[in-house]
Amino acid sequence: MEEQLVLASASPRRRELLQQIGLKFQVIPSRAEEHILPGETPEEHVVRLSLDKANEVANRKNISGRWFIGSDTIVLCDTQILGKPEDETQAATILKQLSGREHQVLSGYAVIDRQTGKQRSEAVSTRVWFRHLTDQEINAYIATGEPADKAGAYAIQGLGICFVSKIEGSYTNVVGLPLCRLTLAMKELGISLLI
Ligand SMILES: Cc1cn([C@H]2C[C@H](O)[C@@H](COP(=O)(O)OP(=O)(O)OP(=O)(O)O)O2)c(=O)[nH]c1=O
């Protein structure tokens, strides 16, 4: 029997986080578009995209499964939304901006129950402080390839942890899914978990 839970994501980080808590699920990357709409707040943005990603997969006719999870992660610095860098130059600009200061990582999640039509969604924020980074460190970090597909051009679960002097809030939220909040929402929608 196919798994009833579907992760609508191409992110290996999200897959690993759900595996970490013992869940069995299908992984189907979403094809939802990721544009910022004029006037929407960062919180509204990540929640909308999370819902779009989950709904896009849930609405496909040939897909089995009952519950669909979508998520989106952005970095907020100086009220500016920093997504995934388009190239190495942009990665360097982002890392220089984050150097020596605090930023916010905002992840949205959405869980949709296709059987009952019920859904839960929310934006969760984590505060992260970076120590000062030299240009040499930034260039060496970019050369590792790690920043390429990460919001804010770093990975807290990788080498990027060396830049983090302090964090306040959920760690898994920075990696890509706020597991504490998400699992509460999953329970409310009837998904059985070990705890
Ligand atoms: C800040 C940070 C982000 N990230 C990653 C998580 C996400 O994969 C990515 C943000 O991009 P997203 O657009 O949220 O996700 P995605 O395109 O990788 O996958 P999908 O839309 O299919 O779910 O940044 C880390 O892995 N570690 C970090 O420390």
Domains (count) = 1
Number of helices: 6
Overall shape: elongated
- The CATH architecture can be named as Alpha-Beta Complex
CATH class: Alpha Beta
Bound molecules: thymidine-5'-triphosphate
Instruction: Return the string of H and E elements.
Output: EHEHEEHEEHEHH
Function: Nucleoside triphosphate pyrophosphatase that hydrolyzes 7-methyl-GTP (m(7)GTP). May have a dual role in cell division arrest and in preventing the incorporation of modified nucleotides into cellular nucleic acids.
InterPro entries: ITPase-like_fam (IPR029001), Maf-like (IPR003697)
Enzyme class: hydrolase
GO molecular function: dTTP diphosphatase activity; UTP diphosphatase activity
Task: Write structural notes for this entry.
It contains 6 helices and 7 strands. The protein has helices spanning 12-20, 42-58, 88-98, 135-143, 171-175, 179-188; strands spanning 5-7, 26-27, 67-77, 80-82, 102-113, 119-130, 164-168. Strands 1, 2, 3, 4, 5, 6 and 7 form a 7-stranded mixed beta sheet that branches.
